[in-house]
């Protein structure tokens, strides 16, 4: 699927989404619409092959995930990203997935991105401003903050959907605490060997954890550990 489509940015982004649909990764109209609305090129590094199905470095030992991983996470969280719901994106990086969340939950919902690298948060705000999600940033339903995402973002908890964009050695308890009953958390877990875990919180507060697939993400660490050697 490593392919670079000719044509305008909008048509290339649409072609990327259509390819993900053909591969069966995008299965719903809502996820397709969100990824079509939020142009990946506005969030990818300048001069990069923005629509290639591969992760890309964005500086500060961080990456933007491959489109198929973004699509996978959006599909897993789709029922928890209905209009008016609250979503948290931990390790929000470029702001791309947070913008997709905002598109799905709409102006009555909340989409919160948290990253512990201030320069990435600053860049993500500029990226979102250029995108179709810009008005949602302006009206406050989408917000990007500097913080340690392992602690979540209590201000707008509880969340219907939580996504973590880096691999944790174990599932951080604050994220489970900030998950609404009926809510879902999608998080890569592991060190050398990593699995994408899906955590569903039941109405009684108990949680069920399932494994979706094997993955490879950068580690979810402290700011100091992430920047070591950078």
UniProtKB/TrEMBL annotation:
One of its GO terms (molecular function) is protein-L-isoaspartate (D-aspartate) O-methyltransferase activity. Belongs to the methyltransferase superfamily. L-isoaspartyl/D-aspartyl protein methyltransferase family. It comes from the Eukaryota. It comes from Helianthus annuus. Its EC number is 2.1.1.77. NCBIfam families: pimt. It is an enzyme of class 2 (transferase). SUPFAM superfamilies: S-adenosyl-L-methionine-dependent methyltransferases (SSF53335). This is Protein-L-isoaspartate O-methyltransferase. One of its GO terms (cellular component) is cytoplasm. The keyword S-adenosyl-L-methionine applies. It holds the Pfam family PCMT. InterPro entries: PCMT, SAM-dependent_MTases_sf. Keywords: Methyltransferase, S-adenosyl-L-methionine, Transferase. It catalyses: [protein]-L-isoaspartate + S-adenosyl-L-methionine = [protein]-L-isoaspartate alpha-methyl ester + S-adenosyl-L-homocysteine. GO terms for biological process: methylation; protein repair.
């Amino acid at each position: 699927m490593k392919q670079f489509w000719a044509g305008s940015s909008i048509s290339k982004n649409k072609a990327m989404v259509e390819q993900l649909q053909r591969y069966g990764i995008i299965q719903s109209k809502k996820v397709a619409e969100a990824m079509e609305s939020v142009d990946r090129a506005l969030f990818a590094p300048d001069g990069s092959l923005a629509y290639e199905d591969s992760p890309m470095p964005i500086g500060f030992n961080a990456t933007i995930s491959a489109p198929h991983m973004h699509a996978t996470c959006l599909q897993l969280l789709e029922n928890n990203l209905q209009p008016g719901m609250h979503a948290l994106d931990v390790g929000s990086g470029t702001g791309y997935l947070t913008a997709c969340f905002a598109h799905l939950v709409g102006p009555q919902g909340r989409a919160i991105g948290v990253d512990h690298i201030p320069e990435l948060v600053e860049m993500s705000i500029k990226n979102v401003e250029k995108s179709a999600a810009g008005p949602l940033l302006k009206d406050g339903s989408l917000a990007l903050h500097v913080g340690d995402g392992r602690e979540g973002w209590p201000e707008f908890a509880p969340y219907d959907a939580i996504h973590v964009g880096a691999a944790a050695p174990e599932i951080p308890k604050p994220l489970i605490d900030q998950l609404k009953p009926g809510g879902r958390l999608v998080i890569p877990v592991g060190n050398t060997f990593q699995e994408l875990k899906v955590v569903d919180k039941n109405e009684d507060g108990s949680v069920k954890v399932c494994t979706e697939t094997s993955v490879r993400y950068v580690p979810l660490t402290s700011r100091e550990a992430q920047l070591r050697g950078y």
